[in-house]
Structures are given as structure tokens and as C-alpha cells.
Specification:
Elements (H helix, E strand, L loop, with lengths): L9 E3 L3 H13 L4 E6 L6 H5 L2 E6 L10 H11 L3 E3 L9 H9 L3 E2 L4 H8 L1 H10 L7 E2 L6 H11 L3 E5 L9 E3 L5 H16 L4 E5 L5 E9 L5 E8 L3 E2 L2 E2 L1 E4 L6 H17 L4 E9 L5 E7 L6 H8 L3 H9 L16 E8 L1 E2 L5 E2 L2 E2 L2 E3 L6 E5 L6 E2 L6 E9 L2 H13 L2 E3 L5 H9 L1 H4 L7 H4 L5 H5 L5 H20 L6 H5 L11 E3 L2 E8 L2 E9 L6 E6 L5 E7 L4 E6 L2 E10 L2 E6 L2 E7 L5 H5 L10 E3 L4 E6 L6 E2 L4 E7 L2 E6 L4 E6 L6 E2 L4 E5 L1
Parallel strand pairs: 1-2, 1-4, 2-3, 4-5
Antiparallel strand pairs: 6-9, 7-8, 7-9, 10-11, 10-15, 12-13, 14-17, 15-16, 17-24, 18-19, 20-23, 21-25, 22-24, 26-27, 27-28, 27-34, 28-29, 29-30, 30-31, 31-32, 32-33, 33-34, 35-42, 36-38, 36-41, 37-40, 38-39, 40-42
Helix pairs in contact: 4-5, 12-13
């Protein structure tokens, strides 16, 4: 559809995958796009894909992507007639909407009044109650002093949730199970809310046990037309943030779906809402639903709705913003098939989802029918401390839920990411878990099924193919390196050849043996190369029966193992003193055997108590220092709170002892590995 009043140029006030996603639709519509970028994003994918790109400031978002004046100045210079905010950053900032209006630039989203009303969780709940939508019992009053909130918490009863009124994405949210932890958690929620949203107002809510998180997508135009596009279930979460989303929900009957959709539309109409938005609900075990909040923007998980409805939500956002009436009626919204989205993050699930920064040395996204990958990251790009650590969204579509799950499993098994720690293995564990396949999902899914247990991960057996891939990669790469030697570089290249290094190698007859350690167990791999076929190897793991294997090294660090006619695809990279292998949706880090450290072995039993310095796990900002030099502290006591990637991380005492020195004050920006506290 070509419209006379369509925008001639759109600025995307965002970065990463959502900026790339919006640009794709604009390109299809023939609308040129303008990108903005910070110093950290100078070479980012969204910059390369735009028709024009403007530098807007230093890496911290407060000095670039959150600068309303700078972004509007770029819009005027570029001649952009409209701004799409994506999600995050300024997408739910009513002041930005009003500033766009004053500048004569169209904001692709809701009006400021509706955004401001629904942006307050307290006001949104009150509005929902006024139109007969059920809400969770709690406290939403204006009095924010500690005494009132403590009193209200005791009235509501524990467990309960502290939630930021202006919040979203799990920021400023705390789960409290006992009264004596309430004030400490309240202080943390306020700090996080203030840092993320500039507003430390909170409200209290009864904690519903084992709820499902179900949200309704709505679309509305400027002429009072509002429709529901169905639901997404987003129950599997970590840190109160979604990582798996799907549509439709197995928990909803047609009648319940219609009832929730009607409630969502009533709330949106009462708010005077226009454009795309999402009503979030909690569904308890008895299938009673409660309104939680509204997201006044395009959601991260919007692709699953696009898959099952066949609609391009960004396209409809642009049509509505351009003044077009909604071209869809409620009875025209049809759903077909099943879609699932998983969020791939640079984070460590085994260590409280600590974000992982660094360069993506290799990113191999999956391909095939029914697979969509939305990403702003490519091989060679960097995950920095400044922004959300999401690498990509993987979306799969199938004719029904089992087909979609099977496709998700395959897609994860064909993915490979090196350079940072990711949650791909966790996502694969979810995809193959019987409870997920049966649809038994709720917001405590990961904890209930112990998918985050480090002990459970330690029990994961190491496949023989992972060992073989690591060893054959090292050997083959070493031989290739040696064959390239010339007079000038012979010494440096030979130094990388495992055939010429003693290191982990030992002679066993005519074979060579490599030794690896995985979760405190050592494995030995003996290899003997065929004289006739350079890709054929005779290999033996420990005392197992030896076998002949063909190994081919392909592009993108692909290691193809052939057991006769059976082929196994793996990806292998060398990471410092480890060989990292990706096989079947799982990542295995194999330590090379190191020369024994006699001193370390002698003191191994007291290693924890010998830790004298506590370092920052990643770059960030010190937001709270809770100790002083000379203080006596208990084991596991929180000493310092670090804010990084929009979340708080604690630095705790490893043992009972005394603080010798605190090297940084509050508001200090520190690098990863910086020594924060020194212990006696």
C-alpha cells in the first residue's frame, strides 16, 4: 500500500537489533532511515544499514541515546519527519514525545498523556480497576516513607513484591519473603528504579505463587479504533526479565483469550491510547487473571505475534503515526500455527546471569525454514558495559507447538557464538525439558526445575565428540601452522605447533596424547594420523576402544567429524588456556593440562581464606559502599554494590575478616577486574 501522506524519512532513536528491525520495514516501504550512534557504536551494524548516520556523543546512554536535544537536532538536520523510538531508552519518555510535538516531528507511538498515565504502574492499576479489570492486591498509595511501606507490607503479608512505579524489565523489582529483609530490599529497589527511570516511587504487590505471565498485544488508531492481536506467554524469566516468549499460550481457552483481550481493549480505550502497546497480565493456577501494567511501546517479543498473525507491527505503527485509520477489524485477526522467541544474551547463567563483555569472535546464526534471527551483532562486534547484553532474538514458527519446539531445538543446536559467555546452553536445556514441552511453565520455572544449579551443570557429561573435536582441532591447526613456516616466521609459527610443544603432549608409541580437564576430571585423547589420508585419524579416549575418524576443518571454525558415514558438526575455538567446543546446543570449555603448581596444591584447602582482594566482576559504576576500612565483616556480607548493564551486582566478603582498604567511592566508574576492596 502506497500512501500520499507517508513519511519521506524516519529517524530511529535506538541501536542494536531493534534499530535494524525497524530499518528493514522502512526499507520495504521505501522510506529512507537515519541512524544515531554513540562512540561505542561507531562501527555497529545499525549504523552500516541506515541511509544516513549521525554521531551523538560518548558511550554512556545518558550522554548519547538519552539526549533529547541532540536527537531532535539530528532529526532537523537530516530532514526526518518522524522518529521511531524502538524499545528502551526514550521509547516511554513522555517529555520526549512532547518535545517531538513542539519540534513538529511525529513520534511513532502513543500520545504523551496516555504514555504518562500508563507509564505509572500505580495510575495504570487504578485505571484498570475503574473499567472492571482485576488487579493484584497490594499497596499503591502516595505515602512512600519507610514506616508506611513497612506497615503496608505487613498488612499484605509475605511473600510480596516491591515494584518500581515507573519501571519495567524487572528493574527496581524485589521479591521479599521475610519482614526482616524488607527495608534492605526496599532500598535496593529504590536505587535501581532511580538509576533506570529517574523515579524511586514503588508500590507493593502480593506475590502470586507459580503464576503465568500472559500479555495482550493491542493496536489503536487516532479515530478510536482499537483491537487485540492475541496473547503472548512470557512466563520463563530470569531476574524478572523474560527470556522465552510464545504465542499462543497453552493455558488460555478461547473464552479466556476473548475475556483478556476485551479487558485489554477497555483499558487502552480508557487511557486514550494510540499505536502499538501491550497489556501485561498475571494468570494464577486457577486461571484467574490480574492486570499488572502496560508497556507503551513496541515489545521486544513482538515477532511472535507477527508470526502467528502474519502482520508487520512496525509497518502498522508507521501507518497509524502517518494518520491512517486502522485497516483491520477485530474479526479479521486470525491466528495460525505457533511461534516461540528466545533471547540470546551475553551472560553467565551459572553465576547469577552476570553479563559477559568482550568481542564476539564468531557468531553463526541458524538458518532454515521457519527461523528468524533479529540481531544487531555480527562477528567482530563488541559487547560493552554500556548497553543491554542481548546478542540476538531467535524466533521460530511451526504449524503447532511441538513443531515449533522441535525447530527451536534444531536452531539452537546449529548456533555458535564465541568470545563471550552466553545463555544458549540454558535455552537449549529449556527447549528439551519435559515440563516445557508439556506447557507447564510459570515465572519460577528455572528455579523449580533447577536449570540454574551449578551442581546440575557440573553433572553434565562431556560427550566424546567434544573431546575429539578439541584435540583434532588443536592437532590439525598446529600442522597447518607448521606447514606455513618460512625462514622469517619459522620460530614463531613453530611455537604454536602442538607437535613441537611438550605442554600437554606425551609420546605413547607412535601416537600423541593430549590431556584436558573438564569439571575436575581429566581426559586423555591419543591420536595417530594416517599416512595415506591426511584427514583420517586413529583416536582413543582414555581406555576406550580406539576408532578411525575423519576430521575436516571448515570455515567459521567448523570441525566436521566423520564416524564412517555418520557426520557430527562442531565449532571449536581457542580461548586463552582453554579449548571451547560448541556441540548440539551446548558449550564445553576444556582446560589444557597445566604444569602442576606445587605451592598452590599445598595451600588448596585454604584458597578461599587467602583471597585478599575483591575485584569488580565487570566494568560498571559503584552505587553503594557499605563498609569502611577497619570494619569487621561476616562471610557473604554485601560490601559494595556495582551497577552495570542496567542491573545491580553485589561484591561480598568471601570469609569473616576485616576490611583493610576500600579503593573506590560511590559514583566511581571502574573497569572489570579493578580491585574494589582489600581484606586482611
Amino acid at each position: 500500500m502506497v500512501l500520499k501522506n507517508m513519511f519521506r524519512k524516519i529517524l530511529i532513536a535506538n541501536r542494536g537489533e531493534i534499530a535494524v528491525r525497524i530499518m528493514a520495514t522502512c526499507r520495504e516501504m521505501g522510506i529512507p532511515t537515519v541512524a544515531v550512534y554513540s562512540e561505542a557504536d561507531r562501527h555497529a551494524r545499525h549504523v552500516r544499514e541506515a541511509d544516513e548516520a549521525y554521531f551523538i556523543g560518548p558511550a554512556p546512554a545518558a550522554q548519547s541515546y538519552l539526549r533529547i536535544d541532540t536527537i531532535l537536532d539530528v532529526a532537523k538536520k537530516s530532514g526526518a519527519e518522524a522518529i521511531h523510538p524502538g524499545y528502551g531508552f526514550l521509547s516511554e519518555n513522555a517529555d520526549f514525545v512532547e518535545a517531538c510535538e513542539r519540534a513538529g516531528i511525529v513520534f511513532i507511538g502513543p500520545p504523551a498523556a496516555a504514555m504518562r498515565l500508563m507509564g505509572s504502574k500505580i495510575a495504570a492499576k487504578q485505571l484498570a480497576q475503574s473499567v472492571g479489570a482485576p488487579t493484584v492486591p497490594g499497596y499503591m498509595g502516595e505515602h512512600q516513607d519507610d514506616e508506611t511501606l513497612m506497615s503496608q507490607a505487613e498488612r499484605i503479608g509475605f511473600p510480596l513484591l516491591i515494584k518500581a512505579s515507573a519501571g519495567g524489565g524487572g528493574k527496581g523489582m524485589r521479591e521479599v519473603h521475610e519482614a526482616n529483609n524488607f527495608l534492605e530490599q526496599l532500598a535496593g529497589a529504590r536505587r535501581e528504579a532511580k538509576a533506570a527511570f529517574g523515579d524511586e516511587t514503588v508500590f507493593l504487590e502480593r506475590l502470586i505463587q507459580q503464576p503465568r505471565h500472559v500479555e495482550i498485544q493491542i493496536l489503536g488508531d487516532n479515530y478510536g479504533n482499537l483491537i487485540s492481536l492475541g496473547e503472548r506467554e512470557c512466563s520463563i524469566q530470569r531476574r524478572h526479565q523474560k527470556i522465552v516468549e510464545e504465542s499462543p499460550s497453552v493455558a488460555l481457552t478461547p473464552a479466556l483469550r476473548a475475556e483478556m483481550g476485551a479487558a485489554a481493549v477497555r483499558i487502552a480505550k480508557a487511557a486514550g491510547y494510540v499505536n502499538a502497546g501491550t497489556m501485561e497480565f498475571m494468570l494464577d493456577v486457577d486461571k484467574r487473571f490480574y492486570f499488572l501494567e502496560m508497556n507503551t511501546r513496541l515489545q521486544v517479543e513482538h515477532p511472535v505475534t507477527e508470526c502467528v498473525t502474519g502482520l508487520d507491527l512496525v509497518r502498522h505503527q508507521i501507518y497509524i503515526a502517518a494518520g491512517e485509520p486502522l485497516s483491520l477489524a477485530q474479526d479479521q485477526i486470525l491466528h495460525r500455527g505457533h511461534a516461540i522467541e528466545v533471547r540470546i544474551y551475553a551472560e553467565d547463567p551459572e553465576h547469577d546471569f552476570l553479563p559477559s563483555t568482550g568481542t564476539i569472535t564468531l557468531f553463526v546464526p541458524p538458518q532454515g525454514p521457519g527461523i528468524r534471527v533479529d540481531s544487531g551483532i555480527e562477528s567482530g562486534d563488541e559487547i560493552t558495559q554500556y548497553y543491554d547484553p542481548m546478542i540476538a532474538k531467535l524466533i521460530v514458527y511451526g504449524e503447532d507447538r511441538p513443531a515449533a519446539i522441535a525447530r527451536l531445538q534444531r536452531a539452537l543446536e546449529e548456533s555458535a557464538i564465541f568470545g563471550v559467555i552466553t545463555n544458549v546452553s540454558l535455552l537449549h536445556d529449556i527447549a528439551v525439558h519435559p515440563a516445557f514441552r508439556e506447557g507447564l511453565t510459570h515465572t519460577n520455572f528455572l528455579n523449580e526445575y533447577k536449570l540454574l544449579s551449578s551442581e546440575a551443570r557440573a553433572d553434565v557429561s562431556l560427550p566424546n565428540n567434544a573431546l575429539l573435536a578439541a584435540a583434532l582441532y588443536e592437532v590439525t591447526k598446529g600442522i597447518e601452522t607448521a606447514s606455513l613456516s618460512d625462514g622469517h616466521n619459522q620460530q614463531s609459527r613453530a611455537s604454536r605447533n602442538p607437535w613441537q610443544l611438550l605442554g600437554p603432549w606425551r609420546i605413547v608409541g607412535e601416537a600423541r596424547t593430549l590431556t584436558y580437564r573438564y569439571h575436575e576430571r581429566e581426559y586423555k585423547v591419543a591420536l595417530r594420523r594416517s599416512a595415506e589420508d591426511t584427514e583420517l585419524w586413529n583416536v582413543q579416549i582414555d581406555s576406550q576402544t580406539a576408532e578411525n575418524i575423519t576430521c575436516t576443518i571448515g570455515n567459521d571454525d567448523l570441525v566436521l567429524l566423520k564416524h564412517g558415514v555418520a557426520q557430527v558438526r562442531t565449532y571449536v575455538q581457542e580461548q586463552k588456556d582453554e579449548i571451547q567446543v560448541i556441540l548440539g546446543g551446548q558449550s564445553y570449555s576444556l582446560e589444557r593440562r597445566q604444569a602442576p603448581d606445587v605451592d598452590a596444591a599445598a595451600h588448596k584447602h585454604s584458597a578461599t581464606h587467602s583471597q585478599k582482594t575483591l575485584t569488580a566482576p565487570m566494568a560498571g559504576t559503584i552505587v553503594k559502599v557499605q563498609v569502611h576500612p577497619g570494619d569487621t565483616v561476616q562471610a557473604h556480607q554485601v560490601l559494595v554494590i556495582l551497577s552495570a548493564m542496567k542491573m545491580e551486582h553485589t561484591i561480598t566478603a568471601p570469609y569473616t575478616g576485616k576490611v583493610r582498604r576500600v579503593n573506590y567511592q560511590e559514583e566511581a566508574v571502574v573497569k572489570g577486574g579493578a580491585v574494589i576492596v582489600e581484606m586482611e
